[in-house]
Design a protein that fits this description.
Elements lengths: L4 E10 L3 H12 L4 E4 L24 H13 L14 H14 L3 E3 L3 E8 L2 E9 L2 E12 L5 H5 L4 E3 L14 E4 L17 E2 L2 E2 H8 L9 E3 L6 E3 L12 H25 L7 E5 L9 E3 L7 H5 L7 E6 L28 E4 L11 E3 L8 H7 L2 H21 L8 H8 L2
Parallel strand pairs: 1-2, 1-6, 2-3, 6-17
Antiparallel strand pairs: 4-5, 5-6, 7-14, 8-12, 8-13, 9-10, 11-12, 15-16
Helix pairs in contact: 1-9, 5-6, 9-10
């Protein structure tokens, strides 16, 4: 079926998670005509529709700092005008849209990216589909911020699915919030390696005993609202996030776990005796799918050595090797959370954003070129936002200078982003 409509733009950004938002905002702010395509009804991806609890990890991104500052201005109560990494997803949904409107970005919600438009190795844009029908969107630069790299894959960019040796991927999670929590007594455990002893036993061990497999851990986080706690505790293993059937399976699996998790919280966790579910994510959290082959592939060694690349476009990226157990609950044997020992921030080179053999296309967010272990670190949302900021700057430069993405110097990108 041929497309019903046709649009032309300078920059097309597919996906509006933190990386896609940052790419679209930065490109539009610097003079490019931008269309941002998002499959859901809100901008923000996991940070909003996914009910993510907080900005975990950090990045030396001026845009990230601006987002935190402007979020603080929208907060109420004790968090009013206070910089915090805690996310209020409802206020963040509005802030994202307001910022995009400020810079003149065109946003297309409720719209799926269906296929790539290509001429040989040149990516000319993408076909999208929504209630109005199909639209071919032609762009001078296409930025794939879909998380899974859907359009890059359809364009023929080379990738590895999941872990290099067996293609297995980290488990999926559906975030949810509980109310009725006594904050004066509540326990908040922020990592798998965090423990808490009670008269009934240690909470992580009790979770493994009393929450049905493959769930079986406790991760609870404060919110900006009184008595409300975000739970990162559901778990679906052997899920391929590029499969609609598996996404449905993961959603059902996680929803079936929620009542058992609440029962555990009420019975064993101080402060949660009267808790109840108040909301759950409308977007399943997929941690890992495609790792694309770029002009450079970031490695675990690069991160451990805090390598400073000549062509870096992201700096002061900091997180841990957050590998959730691929075979069950808790931390994978390869993962390290609070005991991660590398205290320096690392950099990400521009060449990780460029697919090896495709032109006019950039990778953006967790789908950039990196190994399974490196990805477990740079997939953190602040780092993905910094990647998006760099991608948007590169796109704006390509438009202004009428040049190839391959011909842009990292120094030009850093000048625009201010890192």
């Amino acid at each position: 079926m041929t497309a019903k409509f046709e649009l032309h733009t300078d920059v097309l950004v597919l996906g509006s998670g933190p990386s896609g938002f940052a790419a679209a905002y930065t490109a539009a702010k610097n003079g490019a005509e931008v269309i941002l395509v998002e499959q859901s009804g809100d901008v923000g991806g996991i940070s909003t529709s996914g009910l993510m609890s907080h900005w975990t990890g950090s990045c030396g991104s001026p845009l990230f700092n601006e987002l935190l500052k402007r979020s603080a201005e929208k907060n109420e109560g004790e968090f009013k005008n206070k910089i915090t990494n805690i996310i209020d997803p409802e206020k963040l949904k509005t802030l994202y849209l307001e910022m995009l409107v400020e810079v003149g970005c065109r946003v297309m919600l409720y719209t799926f990216a269906e296929d790539a438009i290509c001429d040989g190795d040149k990516v000319l844009g993408a076909t999208v589909i929504n209630k109005s029908g199909k639209t071919d969107i032609y762009a001078k630069v296409t930025i794939d911020a879909t998380g899974d790299g859907d359009i890059a894959a359809r364009a023929g960019a080379e990738f590895v699915l999941g872990r290099e040796n067996d293609n297995k991927m980290q488990p999926a999670t559906l975030m949810f919030k509980v109310g009725g929590v006594d904050y004066d007594r509540a326990v908040f455990l922020g990592s798998f390696e965090s423990t808490y002893e009670t008269s009934n036993g240690e909470l992580q061990a009790l979770a493994k005993q009393h929450i049905p497999y493959p769930a079986g851990h406790i991760l609870t986080y404060k919110t900006t609202l009184p008595g409300i706690v975000t739970c990162n505790m559901t778990n679906a293993i052997e899920i391929d996030g590029t499969s609609a059937q598996d996404l449905t399976k993961a959603t059902l699996t996680c929803r079936r776990q929620m009542d058992d998790i609440v029962k555990y919280l009420r019975e064993f966790v101080p402060g949660y005796e009267n808790c109840f579910i108040v909301s759950s994510a409308s977007l399943i959290g997929i941690r890992e799918t495609r790792h694309f082959k770029g002009k450079y592939t970031l490695t675990e060694k690069d991160i451990l050595e805090a390598k400073v690349f000549d062509d870096y476009v992201v700096k002061d990226a900091y997180f841990n090797f957050d590998v959730h157990n691929i075979a069950g609950s808790g931390l994978d044997k390869t993962g390290v959370q609070k005991h991660f020992s590398q205290e320096k921030g690392y950099t990400i080179p521009y060449h990780c954003l460029l697919p090896e053999i495709k032109e006019n296309l950039m990778l953006c967010g967790r789908n950039i070129s990196g190994t399974h272990m490196a990805h477990s670190n740079f997939r953190a949302m602040p780092i993905c936002l910094g990647i998006g900021e760099a991608a948007g700057a590169a796109a704006a430069i390509a438009i202004m200078q009428k040049c190839s993405l391959n011909d842009i110097a990292a120094e030009q990108i850093r000048e625009i982003t201010g890192i």
